[in-house]
Write a structure and sequence with these properties.
This protein is α/β, with parallel strands linked by helices. It has nine helices and 13 strands. The chain starts with a helix and ends in a 5-residue tail after the last helix.
């Protein structure tokens, strides 16, 4: 699985038109396995950002869906939940990460900076910046493998990234790919959805999870009739576990409340989850973060679930 993660990471960032290479890699790896392709149109923000504090340039990245000026000292934490729908121009930073982290995107002009540059911004007399955003239109695709008619279990995993994404979510993608290769007999009862466009879209206010909602629109009956739903996301960097928290972040479908009781997130034990923020949506999320033992344990846990030994 580590080799699969390395191959996926060699294609990062896997966002917008760059998704295609990752989808092709999955299809090539699953050569001989029947794959139903669900194409759909999407758009992601592409642009440039500039920021100065007292005339000194501050390295930044655009974290916005719209263009405009950032000329205020509006500093916010990008991993703070209440900031997710922030609609004013801002400068944001991930206080847990040592690099620029695109943890949250905003429907207002915004730029992301390193936490080490925050003091300079706070102490500056003048702060000026701007962001220029265009829509990158492309055809994304969900890859559906297994029982499409009456699945007993449905697994979801997304293969796109914002920047690097060994944890989020090359790990989950590789786990599902290896599951198919090693245990093809499970596909009689299982449907696996490799989703594109999970990270970004212009859907408002919930811009993440578009690929999942596209599947939901066409295959709502499968979601209604299956026994369990598992979202495989962010495994391999700590001991694995099935958790119920973060479901809206991991699986923001329109009918989540109806299916929440039978939906689980396969990720890591709750006490380790905060370590994700140290690399979240940054170039620090590389394959060196993944531990083979944790990946194998996640596979064992998932197999016990699919064989009816859990829940």
């Amino acid at each position: 699985m580590l080799e699969l993660i390395k191959k996926l990471e060699s294609l990062s960032p896997r966002c917008g038109k760059r998704e295609k290479a990752a989808a092709n890699l999955i299809e090539d790896h699953l050569d001989g396995v029947e794959i139903h392709v669900q194409p759909f149109r999407n758009a992601v923000p592409r642009g440039k950002a500039e920021l100065e504090a007292d005339g000194k340039k501050i390295e930044c990245l655009p974290s916005a869906f719209v263009s405009g000026k950032v000329n205020e000292k509006c500093l916010i934490s990008s991993v703070h939940v209440s900031a997710r729908y922030f609609s004013d121009a801002n400068i944001n930073f991930n206080l847990y990460c040592d690099e620029i982290s695109l943890a949250t995107f905003y429907f207002a002009p915004s730029v992301a900076v390193r936490k080490e540059d925050v003091p300079a911004l706070i102490n500056a007399e003048t702060v000026n910046g701007k962001v220029s955003i265009k829509r990158e239109l492309f055809v994304s695709r969900n890859l559906l493998v297994g029982n499409l008619e009456k699945p007993r279990y449905i697994l979801f995993s997304h293969y796109d990234t914002v920047l690097n994404g060994a944890i989020d979510n090359s790990s989950g993608t590789a786990l599902c790919m290896e599951l198919i290769r090693r245990f093809p007999e499970l596909l009689k009862d299982v449907l696996i959805v490799f989703s594109g466009s999970e990270e970004l879209s212009f859907d408002k206010p919930v811009y993440w999870g578009k690929g999942y909602r596209v599947f939901e629109e066409e295959y709502l009956s499968a979601l209604k009739n299956c026994k369990r739903i598992v979202v495989v996301d962010c495994v391999g960097f700590a001991p694995p576990d099935f958790i119920k928290n973060y479901m809206m972040s991991a699986f923001p479908i329109k009918n989540l409340e109806k299916f929440e009781e039978k939906t689980f997130l396969l990720s890591v034990k709750e006490k380790y989850f905060s370590k994700l923020w140290e690399v979240y949506h940054s170039k620090l999320d590389g394959e060196e973060r993944i531990n083979e033992k944790h990946m194998q344990n996640a596979m064992t846990l998932l197999l016990s679930f699919l064989r009816g030994e859990r829940f």
